[in-house]
Amino acid sequence: MSSSPKNVAVIGAGPAGLMAAEVLAQGDAEVTIYDAMPSVGRKFLMAGRGGLNLTHSEPLPQFLARYREAMPHLKAAIEAFPPSALREWSEALGQETFVGSSGRVFPKAFKASPLLRAWLRRLDSQGVKLALRHRWTGWDERGRLCFQTPDGSVAVEPRATVLALGGASWPRLGSDGAWAEALAARGVQISRLRPANCGFTVSWSEIFRDRFQGQPLKGIGLNFGSDNVRGEAIVTRSGIEGGAIYALSAELREAIDKSGSATLHIALRPDLNIDDLIAKVSAPKGKQTLSNFLRKAANLSPVAIGLLQEAAKASGVSLASMSPADLANLINAVPIELTGIAPIARAISTAGGIAFSEIDADFMIRRLPGVFAAGEMLDWEAPTGGYLLQGSFATGAAAGRGALKWLTA
User: Fold this and answer.
1) Residues 396 and 292 in one domain
2) pLDDT by residue (tens digit) across 60-107?
3) Going along 202-295, which residue ranges are E strands?
4) Distance CA 332, CA 329 (A)
5) Which residues contact 272 (CB under 8 A, 6 or more apart)?
6) Strands (E), 261-348
7) Do residues 11 and 124 both lie within one domain?
């Protein structure tokens, strides 16, 4: 690394790190991005596999509320680089955006790879260097950054450092949370890393698990306490996951952490009121099997009927013995006992990280002057829908601005 008074090391080549590097390069800093993987943006590319959800179009006050208790700490960064700015940034890279029917914002190309390629070209034109296969291991006794590389150990001494190493989900893509130990050794308070936007375990019967694993539950409603969401879920061999589950994952995770389990209620026909549903299941069954009757009368899928049978079995009754009213009530409030949280390696994102009390207004770690942090390393979480990427981009830009300010102080 150059001995220039404006050299900066950015550690982590995900959205937060790349955005920090861009802001720094625009401020004439000499930037090198270090990453343990052989290529950049691996989790970013994975996020875009089913369509890159960059951000969301809802009004900013509602948008900010999605960050829950972390909102006051992220507010200034997101207001400085809001969803509108992110869309303009994408379009300046030749990737126009559009708003989907749910309000989510996507690039018209829909994938992450064209945007990432254009971004890397811009960074290269700005003089940003990449040092890949460099795994950060902490600091040495002289305060230098230490890296393990295929050619051995390397130590560098930049004027400023931006840490953007991600959380601990999808570790095979590079974000394994190993940084927590190095920072904790320096006295930095780290909130325990936990799964966010994650699935949960359920003790399915062997018959249900073997028959329905991988099957979707579409158009359902989920209820947990005072929280209600609509969407889809997927039955897995070990439990349940999917968009509607992720929307409640923070509340479900906290309940399981506290009590060891949580009971989620699923409405299989949330579009029908109870009287209409009772009327449908009161129709003569004739010679139909119960499954065929429920499929036709209540428009239930095989996996939904299987879910009803699981719930009935758990309560010691049979579906066939239920009154129409009891059956209708069960259809729109199927109790599912969640017995645990799916592993963090399978989670979409991570909760926990560097406590905001350790970070100043410029995203500098107070105990480590000249060291800044951004992205999922910080103690915040958000639902899917564009909020995760927006938070990462915005905090990366804020850390970049903070590092520039430090360099010129």
Assistant:
1) no
2) 999 999 999 999 999 999 999 999 999 999 999 999 999 999 999 999
3) 216-224, 227-235, 239-241, 262-267
4) 5
5) 280, 332
6) 262-267, 334-338, 340-341
7) yes
